[in-house]
Amino acid sequence: MTAMADTAALVRLMTWLSPAFPVGAFSYSGGLEQAVADGDVQDASTLRAWLASLLAHGALWNDAVLLAEAHGAAGDAARLAAVTELAEALSGSAERHRETMLQGGAFLTAAASWPHPVLALLGEAAAYPVAVGAVSAGHGVGAEAALAAYLHAVASNLVSVAIRCGVIGQKDGVAVLAGLEALILALADAAARSTPDDLGTSAIRADIASLRHETLPTRLFRS
Questions:
Q1: In the chain, N or C terminus with fewer CB closer than 10 Å?
Q2: Which band of pLDDT confidence, cut at 50, 70 and 90, is reported for residue 56?
Q3: Domains of the chain
Q4: Contact 143, 192 (CB under 8 A)
């Protein structure tokens, strides 16, 4: 791939995972709003610990493995269909299912501005990490780059959630992201070499927060 093609792929990746891309990520907290209400996340330190757990041991690790599998399956209709079904089945709650499927569908709709045969293989609905992984592969974005960008984008959105919940300010938000940088890079490297056998989580408190958020009386976010 030429330097110009590399740059074009990078720009597309930045566009797809920017806050301006119409996937509605701003409206979801992945259970973080419930964690704030419960007092589990109170400041920058507890937010960083919460996000680190999600990345290394929670739903975001599974997302990374699914993204990597979708990236490798982009040219294989049967394999891509299998990971698409698996990703939807792994949604641990109604809100988590709605979050990943609606964002994935919105991503595919918007990504149609960059036509590619992989979009026909995915159809109109796919979990968010599967959509990002397959489309990234189709446009020549490397797996590790796609993974790092995806994990950073999700972490950035959750930091924004914490800011809107009044837990931290913008300065602390930047510091939290800086503190997660090494972990994100390490997990992107690990996930790029993963297989579906590496799926699994142990962030039980985060999973429970996602479930309990369905009945949180006053909510800013859809999950």
A1: N
A2: very high
A3: 35-215 (1.10.4190.10)
A4: yes
Q: Please count the residues of the chain.
A: 223
Which residues have a Cβ under 8 Å from the Cβ of 13 and sit 6 or more positions away? 136, 141, 145, 146, 149
Closest to 17 in 3D by CA, of 120, 157, 121, 158: 157
Q: What is the pLDDT of residues 57-101, one digit of tens each?
A: 999 999 999 999 999 999 999 999 999 999 999 998 999 999 999
Amino acid at 168: I
The mean per-residue pLDDT over the stretch 8-37 comes to 95
Q: Which residue carries 């976010």 as its tokens? A: 221
Torsion angle in degrees (nearest 10) through CA of 11, 15, 18, 22: 180
Closest CA to 36 of 182, 215, 206, 222: 206
Sign of CA dihedral 18, 124, 104, 191: negative
How many CB atoms neighbour CB 112 within 10 A?
A: 11
**Alpha-carbon torsion (4, 5, 7, 12), positive or negative:** positive
Instruction: Please check whether residue 42 is in contact with residue 32, taking contact to mean a CB–CB distance below 8 angstroms.
Output: no
Average pLDDT of the segment spanning 134-163: 97
Nearby residues of 16 by Cβ (< 8 Å), 6 or more positions away: 107, 110, 111, 132, 135, 136
Tokens of 157: 């959105």
Q: Are 110 and 23 in contact (CB under 8 A)?
A: yes
